[in-house]
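Contributing new complexes? Match this layout with geranylgeranyl diphosphate.
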Amino acid sequence: MVLTNSTDSQTIPFDLSAYLLERKKQVEAALEQAIAVVYPERIYESMRYSLMAGGKRLRPILCLATAELAGGTAEIAMPTACALEMIHTMSLIHDDLPAMDNDDFRRGQPTNHKVYGEDIAILAGDGLLAYAFEFIAVQTQQVPAERVLRVIAHLGRAAGAAGLVGGQAVDLESEGKSEVGVETLNFIHRHKTAALLEASVVSGAVLAGAEQADIERLSRYAQHIGLAFQIVDDVLDITSTPEALGKSTGKDVQAQKVTYPSIWGIEESKRQAHQLVEAAKQELRSFGDSRRPLAAIADYITARTH
Ligand code: GRG
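Output block (do not edit by hand):
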């Protein structure tokens, strides 16, 4: 897919497919090296099973792209990029558990608990979460310690009750409640989905030494694409197939879950997502040509089919 940045008057083509493919390869090579299987083998195998099961690697790619946009290199951001994927994978393993969403398939493969059992799946998530922070602290090189500390604090907040955990708690609490409105839905997804995407972008910028005003612009960019991402996810749950998504579809309707399409309808949901993507791209205006990967990723959010 060759996308042009639609907010530019002088549009420069940007081959996002090639960019994503190349970046995914780099991230997967780093992840491959990140966890060795040692005694007790079963837990390390379980952690690696989900970490290496594929996926778009969107969070690490956002982190690397933002580090470069802010004048840093992919190299200084790679340990944090890997850690972001570890935290994301942990959240998917726990989300799929019978006590939560009870899913059998993820990324086109049986879920962690289906292969290793619930007990090991819980521990694999715990192991990945703890290791993510160790990995940043031990592996990050050529970055002042103060920046690394700031990244660790921001990621801790995004993963905890002020982020993923809080979003998931409200999501569980809202199940089966037909009176859930857009405000609650926004709270859930700002925390469950947008918080980690935001932390991906902010951590890349912080590692590269970006100025506070730029970090705030990038943070708003990420919050917009985070919400757009979830709206599109809700739409795809209705319009896509399990083969295309690598996970079951139609679950929201089946569980009578309140979603963006159930409140707005499919067309209005798509319009809202598109508007958020435009607002996200507006936040990138001051960054020059180096913003192209982030702008194209924003466009990809609404164009994606899986
Ligand atoms: C214990 C810190 C801790 C957290 C657990 C379970 C949980 C709390 C939170 C759930 C978070 C969750 C599953 C959010 C959904 C995020 C989302 C949109 C996932 C799909 O992301 P993609 O499309 O997936 O990027 P791939 O497979 O491409 O990586």
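Reviewers usually confirm one structural detail per submission. For this one: The domain at 2-303 is CATH 1.10.600.10 (Farnesyl Diphosphate Synthase).
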